[in-house]
Design brief:
15 helices, single chain, Arc Repressor Mutant, subunit A, pyruvate-formate lyase- activating enzyme
Length: 445
């Protein structure tokens, strides 16, 4: 792989956890449109729920999430009360039995909640929606602030998957990102959650962090393999200090360059596949027996998932809902979120209503991100003549490709094995919004 090709394909592009992407949401879409979208759902339609907890005990300097560092119990309880109000309002607007296929609590750190708050929030969700034993219920965990009471509370409300943040085990890297977390501390969290009854364990890693090298990433991967998680997410660090001000605490001179980032990601993938993990999409890995490795996958705001629900309802500050009608995002600032919930029960401040062209391009981009290919005939069957510009673009890309990154198939377009590390850049060629506005994105590799 030539450095020139890697640099060219590493240009900043969206991560494509949605299409259209969030920078193109408009304030013309608000709570009224969100309410209409909820009421229009089929009574039997399976739902996915996302709940955002925007607190951490300590701010990690690499973080790009919407979160605030606090240990103030009154601040957290006030937010908790407003979140409960929003959940009840949303549930009242959704018709029917509200069957739930998937739940994800993210942040921040959901374990910034006390054990009592975890149970109360779980009880509110169970009372408001159709949650059963078959529902996948995942939470993100920061091992540094996890205690046995919280582990028991998570298990009591039906959590069956924990995503444990690690990022990197190298002490120098941890100091540079303000996240000091030993292997032993992480192992206690993994074993503790499993002992509490939460059998599914994911570990989240990041490459491209300050002071990281190929060898330091490899050492972290080897420790993670020893912990034997069911799934592993390996994300490239997104250094966007203009958007996340705390990232200014990171010395940019210590960040690895483009080729080093590329080598880190390739080395990590090789070690994980050698250990028996199956590569899923761009940046996830799973054991062969895990449903993520063997079933149909989708891509949403949590990354790759087996969740096939067509309606994802986000609750909490900054959360985004993905409904058949469009995307709807809540107020990001906690105070604004709480004020809006107190006023109307909903906190939507922007979004986008989907056109048929949006839906068609969203399908193409998601299939590329998940399977590295799309079918021309299925696209034409679903969207008719509207699909022709995308098919023409695919033909154009194949004709112009000199490196062997893409190819025709008997029924469409495929990203080759050589091109797969650059699938974000390739998918961006089908993005009708790219280049419009002043959006900033992370490096493509």
């Amino acid at each position: 792989m030539t450095p020139e090709l890697v640099r060219r394909m590493s240009a900043p592009v969206p991560r494509y956890t949605s299409y259209p992407t969030a920078p193109h949401f408009s304030a013309q879409v608000g709570a009224m449109e969100f309410g209409e979208g909820l009421r229009s759902l089929s009574p039997s339609q399976a739902l996915s729920l996302y709940v955002h907890i925007p607190f951490c005990a300590q701010m990690c300097w690499y973080c790009g999430c919407n979160t605030k560092a606090t240990r103030n119990t009154e601040t957290i309880e006030t937010y908790f009360q407003h979140l409960t109000t929003e959940i009840l309002m949303v549930a009242a607007l959704v018709p029917g039995d509200k069957p739930v296929a998937h739940i994800h609590w993210g942040g921040g750190s959901p374990n910034s909640l006390s054990a009592d708050q975890i149970r109360r929030l779980g009880q509110t969700l169970h009372a408001s929606f159709g949650i059963g034993a078959e529902t996948e219920f995942a939470v993100e965990i920061d091992p540094r602030w996890l205690n046995s009471d919280q582990m028991a509370a998570f298990a009591d409300i039906g959590v069956n998957r924990a995503s444990i943040g690690v990022q990197d085990f190298n002490p120098r890297v941890q100091t540079a990102i303000n996240r000091v977390q030993s292997v032993e501390m992480t192992e206690r969290a993994v074993n503790g959650m499993r002992a509490a009854g939460v059998k599914g364990v994911n570990i989240d890693l990041v490459y491209g962090l300050p002071h990281q090298t190929e060898d330091s990433v490899a050492n972290t991967i080897e420790e993670v393999i020893r912990l034997s998680p069911d799934r592993i997410a390996l994300f490239g660090y997104a250094h966007l200090p203009s958007r996340a001000k705390h990232q200014t605490m990171i010395d940019e001179t210590t960040l690895p360059g483009t080729m080093e980032r590329y080598r880190q990601s390739r080395r990590a993938e090789q070690l994980l596949t050698d250990a028996g993990y199956v590569t899923v999409g761009l940046d996830h890995f799973a054991k062969p027996g895990d449903s993520l490795a063997s079933g149909e996958i989708k891509r949403n705001f949590q990354g790759y998932t087996t969740d096939t629900a067509e309606a994802l309802i986000g609750m909490g500050a900054s959360s985004i809902s993905q409904l058949p009608t469009g995307y709807y995002q809540n107020a990001v600032a906690r105070a604004d979120y709480e004020r809006r919930v107190a006023d109307t029960g909903l906190a939507t401040v922007k979004g986008i209503l989907l056109s048929d062209d949006d839906r068609m391009r969203a399908r193409v981009i998601e299939r590329l991100m998940c399977e590295f290919e799309f079918s021309k005939s299925s696209l034409q069957s679903a969207f008719g003549a509207l699909a022709q510009p995308v098919i023409d673009k695919a033909e154009e890309l194949v004709a112009a490709d000199e490196e062997g990154l893409v190819e025709r198939t008997a029924d469409g377009f495929r990203v080759t094995e050589l091109g797969q590390p650059f699938v974000r850049a390739i998918a961006s060629c089908f993005d009708a919004y790219l280049g419009k506005g002043n959006s900033t994105f992370s490096a493509g590799v």
